[in-house]
Specification:
heterodimer; A: 452 residues; alpha/beta; Rossmann fold; 2 domains; 8-stranded mixed sheet; 42% helix; globular; B: 387 residues; mainly alpha; two-stranded antiparallel ribbon; 54% helix; disordered N terminus; EC 2.4.1.198 (chain A); transferase (chain A)
């Protein structure tokens, strides 16, 4: 099939320099899509000094837009305030597809709304799970319904996440694809020399917050230390629950067996992981959980709570599941500890084989290929008439439907005013990134470095 | 099963039957991913897929002739596409295929299904109304007494004010009545405590009496100021604000907890609103003794009396019911002399809250629509054996 190079705009409030699942997904997916011949620009809000246009490795262009941050890195919702600048970017970069990420991101919702007013194709990726019971969930679900009513395709990172999104936004499930996250397996190779053979080391790497199930960890650690004298813990990460862990360590005098590392930089994750035999994840909710994939890639046996999309992520011979309950976690950990001793007798459970298996399961190239397939599905869909868009918004609810229609109508009118103020023809197009020259320079530098 | 996932635009299908690419389906584009990973690592038997009609898959039926044709042409083994073939697999939406293996809800295996495939097991783990409680009518009726009690107590309070305002009740009488009933209440509480051996401590203590005396003196000293506090404000404004504050008091009152010792957040809002309303009303009275009497009565009535009612509710439902009856009848009787319509309204609203609202609550339970599933945040269960 003749492959068509697309201009894609990824939008999310969450991007480098902040670090996390969404951020790495955006970066790696964009890099792989560029390698497949597409042009990708990323739009996010300014992070402190990091404002304006920046280029990352490989000519990945990032717009750091000015915005007011309200809560945990999400920008202030302005509805129409960002329309002019988004329009300029979309036209300058000749964007075909706007791809928004993460339901908590205001930018993502606004970009999709404006892109629809300009008649562009839109895709939305949901990275997290949300319940239906609490007030914030209800509000956010309504907003998601609004955005997803008129999006061409949605992507979720796990099947559980898809079920959740379909319910939250009342979507046609056939419009939602499941494309998991991935890791760069080369960065997570096992290192058998790094572990201490005198101990069985259990590694925990997580933000120390309630949602990561640190309460379970706090009660499980002393019981495991009492049951298994050869076991020690290495706990990386920081957060409000760190105090609980420190108190537990004091109380049971486990200073020599529980090591608290504080926050661990992304570059150091592997060096912490390879010290361990077992990786423990106690999350209470998780759409995908990259952490256990990274751990398995480093050759660790994984013990995890069975919540959200986690059961879909790794095969049973790599993971021991536990219900989020104290006894179950202790039991699962004890099983895993027994398996560590037994592991040398089973060549199929060797760390190296874990690594090669994980490498086959998850790669960003695969993610990019599948994302590209979504793009090619939607790129030639005919643009529905405006009244059809209103019909979709109207179906969102008795009161909300009318409000959504009003917002969409105002946005459409603002789009018309903007087209009159700054006609499309007068907007300067961005120069394409000189990727060949860039590649040549890189290669030359590499050669020079090599000769020295 | 997702029989009614609200899909307002199901008609919005992307697959176009006249699309030549869809019609001319070739086996190679059926697999989303090529590189065949060892799916049987866990040793799962490859069962034949049984097809059943599901509402979410109605889109497939349209293609069934082609599906059949595909099936006839190609042996099942061909459906495992090669890595080379996957590059060409992206142009159309691969809906048409006969699966060789059942779909599994896993991410780590490459399955021969498109990424937007919807299986029959979709939303299988969805639970609806898992923790809905069915209420028992008599229990709910008994529970409503807390609301009726509070409503009646506000009505009694207002009628006391009206009597003071009209001069039909002397400030002196009110001071005596409220003081004696407070002392009686404390004595009653203490006797009950001793009799029932409940863990509540004895309340009548020297420093409590000292505190009460000090407070009373302070209030007595302040009453001239409070009396003239709102002299410049129009009377209508005062009445309107009083109504609003009593509304707030009614809305935020702590009905649920059996808290006897301290007043926490929503309850504190309620108490503040009541005190504010009382101060506003007190400033309309014409002599200092009435102001003092009214405010001291207000504090006892809104700060101490609810605690006593909670205590009664805790020890005996019958006593609580009796209190409710007494309060409701008292409020009606007091208002009979002031305004018959209000008295009747009060009696009817009390009856409505006690007997009709529980029926209403039980009836609306049928509209309960709670959704639970694997995406819910789990609650960590911790036994804390060491603590």
């Amino acid at each position: 099939m003749p492959k068509r190079a697309l201009n894609i705009c990824m939008v999310s409030d969450f991007f480098y320099p902040s670090m996390g699942g969404v951020e790495s997904h955006l970066y790696n997916n964009s890099q792989c899509l560029m390698q497949r011949g597409h042009k990708v620009v990323i739009v996010t809000h300014a992070y402190g000094n990091r404002q304006g246009v920046r280029y990352l490795v490989g000519g990945l262009k990032v717009y750091y837009m000015p915005a007011v941050i309200v809560y945990s890195n999400a920008s202030l919702p302005t509805f129409f305030g960002t329309f002019p600048i988004f329009r300029q970017i979309f036209i300058r970069e000749q964007i075909d597809i706007v791809h928004g990420h993460q339901a908590f991101s205001t930018f993502c919702h606004e970009a999709i709304l404006h892109a629809r007013s300009l008649g562009l194709k839109t895709v939305f990726t949901d990275h997290s799970l949300l319940g239906f019971a609490d007030a914030s969930g209800i509000l956010l679900n309504k907003l998601l319904k609004f955005t997803l009513s008129d999006v061409h395709h949605a992507i979720c990172v796990s099947h559980t996440s898809k079920e959740n999104t379909v319910l939250r936004a009342a979507l046609d499930p056939q419009q939602v694809s499941v494309i998991p996250n991935a890791i760069i397996a080369e960065q997570f190779e096992p290192d058998p020399g790094a572990r201490d053979p005198n101990w069985i080391t259990i590694v925990v790497l997580s933000r120390l917050v309630y949602r990561k199930g640190i309460d379970l960890l706090v009660v499980a650690v002393p019981r495991i230390c009492q049951l298994h004298p050869r076991v020690r813990f290495v706990i990386g990460g920081d957060g409000p629950k760190r105090i609980d862990l420190e108190q537990m360590r004091e109380r049971f005098m486990l200073q020599d067996r529980v090591e608290l590392l504080g926050s661990v930089k992304a570059a150091d994750v592997r060096s912490v992981l390879v010290r361990g035999d077992i990786f423990l994840n106690t999350s209470l909710t998780e759409a995908f959980c990259i952490a256990i994939v990274e751990a398995a890639s480093c050759g660790l046996l994984v013990v995890s709570t069975k919540v959200g999309g986690i059961p879909e992520v790794l095969p049973r011979y790599m993971v021991t599941f536990a219900f989020p309950e104290e006894d179950a976690v202790v039991e699962a950990l004890s099983q895993a500890i027994a398996r560590v001793d037994d592991r040398p007798n089973h060549p199929e459970l060797s760390p190296q084989r874990f690594h090669s298996q994980v490498k086959k399961m998850y790669s960003w190239h695969n993610v990019a290929e599948r994302t590209e397939r979504v793009y090619s599905q939607i790129i030639d869909i005919e643009e529905p008439p405006l009244i059809e868009r209103f019909r979709r918004y109207y179906g969102c609810g008795l009161v909300a439907g009318k409000i959504f229609c009003l917002i969409a109508a105002i946005d459409f009118l603002i789009g018309a005013v903007l087209a009159w103020l700054w006609p499309k023809e007068q907007i300067e197009l961005a120069q394409p990134f000189a990727s060949e020259k860039y590649q040549r320079t890189i290669n030359q530098n590499r050669l020079r470095h090599h000769h020295q | 099963m997702p029989t009614r996932i609200g899909v307002p635009f199901l008609s919005r299908r992307r697959d176009n039957p006249s699309d030549p690419a869809v019609l001319g389906s070739s086996p190679t584009r059926l697999s989303p991913l090529g590189h065949g990973l060892d799916e049987t690592a866990e040793g799962s038997p490859a069962l034949p897929k049984k097809s059943s009609a599901s509402p979410v898959r109605t889109g497939l039926s349209r293609f069934s002739p082609h599906r059949g044709a595909d099936n006839a042409e190609a042996p099942s083994g061909l459906y495992l596409a090669t890595p080379h073939a996957t590059a060409t697999a992206s142009s159309t939406r691969p809906t048409v295929f006969q699966p060789r293996r059942p779909w599994r809800k896993l991410l780590y295996i490459k399955q021969e299904y498109p990424d937007d495939y919807v299986d029959d097991t979709f939303l299988m783990e969805l639970q609806k109304n898992a923790n809905v409680r069915m209420y028992d009518y008599s229990t709910v009726v008994i529970q409503t007494t807390v609301i009726t009690q509070h409503l009646s107590s506000i009505m009694i309070f207002i009628s006391v004010f009206i009597n003071l305002y009209r001069g039909s009740l002397a400030g002196r009488t009110l001071v005596w009545c409220s003081s004696i009933s407070t002392v009686l209440g404390f004595v009653f509480w203490d006797i009950l405590n001793m009799y029932l051996r409940t863990p509540e401590q004895r309340i009548v203590r020297l420093n409590l009496i000292k505190g009460a005396l000090l407070f009373a003196l302070l209030l007595f000293g302040l009453s001239p100021i409070l009396r003239t506090l709102t002299e410049d404000t129009s009377r209508d404004t005062i009445w309107a604000m009083t109504v609003i504050f009593f509304g707030v008091n009614l809305a935020f009152h702590d009905y649920s907890t059996g808290n006897l010792t301290n007043i926490r957040f929503p309850g504190s809002v309620s108490l503040n609103a009541a005190v504010l309303a009382s101060v506003l009303l007190a400033s309309q009275l014409n002599n200092n003794l009435s102001v003092f009497a009214f405010l001291s009565f207000a504090l006892k009535w809104f700060a101490l009396f609810p605690i006593f009612r909670r205590y009664l509710k805790r020890i005996s439902d019958a006593a609580s019911m009796a209190t409710t009856m007494v309060l409701a009848l008292m409020a009606t009787a007091l208002f009979m002399y002031i305004n018959k319509a209000v008295a009747l309204l009060h009696i009817f609203s009390s009856l409505f809250i006690t007997f009709v609202c529980p029926l209403w609550l039980i009836w609306v339970q049928r509209y309960k629509n709670e959704i639970h599933g694997p995406w819910d945040e789990a609650r960590p269960i911790v036994h804390r054996y060491f603590h």
